[in-house]
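Justification of computing resources. Each target in the renewal requires a structure prediction run like the one illustrated here; the chain below, 368 residues long, is used simply to show the kind of job we budget for.
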Amino acid sequence: MYSKVGAKLTKEEMLLKHQQHLQRQRDVIAYRMKKLAAKQVEITKKNDVLKEKIKKRYEDMKRVLDEDLRITLTQLDTEHEAIEKLVEERIEDCYHLTQELDQELANISAQVKKDTQEVDMQNAETEKRISETLKLTDPDLIQLDEFKNEQLLSLTINLLLFIRSQVPVTKKLFQSYATDVVLDADTAHPKLIISSEGDSATYTDTWQDVPETPSRFDTTLNVISQKGFSEGRQYWEVEVSEKTYWELGLTYPSIPRAGREEDCWLGRGRESWCVEYFNGDYTAWHAGVHYELPLLAGKQFTRIGVYCSFPGGTVCFVGADTMTPLYCFCTGRFTDTLHQALCPGHDNEGTNWKSLKICDASRSAPVL
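Resulting structure tokens:
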């Protein structure tokens, strides 16, 4: 009897121990569930943080693309406005000529009474004006640079396929046209110091002992490049930081080197195009006509870029830091070789001693 009770107690003890073990296991499982729930919350939080970071990056990319789109479309609009202005000028030339012809038609009866030789001379002069105007206003001379635009479209497609770094597509395009520019010391005004590499121009108060040659500017602080170009597309950049006065542009070799000062300035004649910066104000110049750029007033750039399309007959200036369009000229067609040209300006009351330095336009300026 005792053994049976002992055995029974042993069985109860075993059941108790098993119950206690199961309870402990249940507590372990419950604790594990709590830990899993906490892990779930942790994972959800991390996932939410990660999603927010990714969303922010996508929003950043969208802002970059929106800005890139704005810059690209602004560049195209600037070139389009330049072409429209050229067309309007050509229409105005034709209109003025038709008015002159109407006046001559009205005076035919009076001309008949004049000496025949005098009438013939007037007729020849009229025919010459008509011929020159028709030649100048030929619509075929005014055209977009279709090849460049196709390249621009191709680059935007590539941008869609692989989102590049925050470099405007216009910058990428212009960099592909980057050219080496070496300044010709034999053309520099005697108060300019040209570096031995030909990549910078610095103003000095001292009139240097340099050879007097027909190619040297002696009334304006200009210098032009050694080599010119007469085809394709060219892009170059100049560092203008800490400058209060400068002029940059392109010119035909026929620009006057001596004589009246205004004739030799960049942009004052039909031989050259330039943008001038003076004490915070930007002005574009060509053929003696100036175009003030009030929206740019007060803006400063580290680099200025100059882009020229020979086939498109365009000269565009940009703030190369952000590819901000400054001004774009459209000539319809260039008639001679073009040379890069610059003027570092005078000392401007001690604020403008820094050199103008030509940069490697194929690479972006380092971020400071």
